[in-house]
Amino acid sequence: MVQAAKRSFDVIPNRIHVLVTLALLAAGSLRSMATTPQHSLPEGVLARFSIPDLARWRGVHSGIAPLRLWHDPAMKPFRARFAAESRRRFTTPLEQVTGVNWPALIDLTAGRLTLAWLPNPGASPKVLTPDSALLLVLDLEANTNAFDRLVASLATPDSGPLAADSVATSVVRGVTFLSRRLHGPSWNAVFDKAFPWPPDATPTTNAPDAAPKFLHLGRVGSWGVATTWQSDLGPIIDRLRQVPPAATAVGDILWEATVERAGLERLMHLPTPAAAADLASLPALNRLKVALGLAGIQRARFSAETLTNGWALNLAFDIPKTQRRGLFALLHPLPMDAAPPAFIPSNTLRFARLRLSGTNAWDHLERMLGDIDPAVLGVFQLFTGYAGRTEDADFDFQARVVNLLGDDWMVASGGVLASGAAPSNLPPGILLLGSPRASELAAGLRTVASPSFLATFFPPDTPEPSRANLEVQGQTVTTVTLPPIPWLDGRTGVLSIASSKGYCGVATDAAWTEAFLAPQGKSASLNDREDFRRAFISAGGPATGLTLYHDEQAAAREFFGAARRSPALLDDLLRWVAFSDTATRLVSGIGAWFDVAALPSFESVAHHFGPCVQCGRVDETGFVLRAVRMETTKP
Hints:
alpha+beta; 36% helix
């Protein structure tokens, strides 16, 4: 189990980069997003998704790299497969059940489009099912007559035993609504087929509903409304009349979404705050969600926006200070400089810098592990307590390592070329730990890296690791040669431990060791690159406390190559983000609409990818992450 976990953590950074790119393919600043009118939504909304200006959205395909990639001729087979599968699995069955041509209805939208998820009376409070209500609001502008004609075409009753009550009209607040009855078994079947439940989950039933459900369609001024909301439509009408359509446009936002706490509970099956307080009594998966800090999220907000020469993706988690635990307490950026230092080379492919207190982070790590399972914490403390003592019986890991950690953590990888290095099968990169006593920290890690201690992590018949010292750039570097590593597909390699410039560095190849130890200014720095700097400033700048950078081309090349080798890759990528049967159901269902085998060669679309910079910070509301990509090539 430990080996499997280490394998998973090894690939998570690359998966995150790929998923960020895929999320942008599917596409305001968070300040703008927070002021967007909630003009059409009843109280208790679970989640909403809005495109402030659909006409503008349709017109930006040639200006934003992710959309250019999606519409590239080389992507046509992949795009066609998605269109065909989404029609076959969801759109066509939905049209057959409701009688509505949904693409034609959405095509009538000229301004804002809003889709909201609402809890119907009597629906399950803990899961996402077809019993939940959906509300679609469209700004029709000059297309009101076309909308009226489309609604009028639905006034013919269905055939069969329920024909008499399958269509009805009603007047609410002076607005005429057409209501079509949705027959429970067929309505539920649409969702169960498009988004099948995992094998070990409890599926929805196709039993007739105790109360009939209806699809209501009507127009409030130039707003078109379609909803399965089973309560009074009056408040929706009142809200729409209060906010003119033109008043809802927000800056350069392409789309925005918000998931409220109640929606998160249904999507992720989060325990309620009262249940989360009794951690010991929770089932293992719910205990994990609480321990990681997921149960403290009160709202998740997302948006994408256009920039003068690029685009941005924003993510925010609203978490009260008193409920920040787990990852949100452990990875808590301090408002300090997080720009790449001068010794990070300009051709670096991936870079991350996080400013946080090392000793505080260690305390939060142990607390999180204990919350997950006291036995996990016990094993962790057993290994750290034993670390270094095979070589020095008096070695104190807390005093010689943990207490020497500073407030600066960095990881960099790829891009650097060695002047003459021994071959290594490990991914090239370096971990940098800031410390006011960096040389003492390096000495402590050298002791921890004793061959006899490291051997405890390998199978009994594996050759023992070896350790040696050598001189690099006039400084002593300790190298540790590793035998085949089971959780890294049997790869071998050499770790190098050195200290310089106020950091202790642990590198996986000689090239990064040389770059770390080289005199300042010897080579061009990542921070000196114009494309990086522009994106960095737009993402938040140096004082945010967290900086992430990756070259999309490197991540995309890996993804395209892996996709050709494994047709199930996308499904595997999506499944690991799901923390519930409902989330697994959604991501697996949508994942089945894609066919990664239909992707073109990476070389044919490589020009759509470029450098992406992300900055994260913590404020009074919670955690904010902003990813920015500045265009470097013309369409």
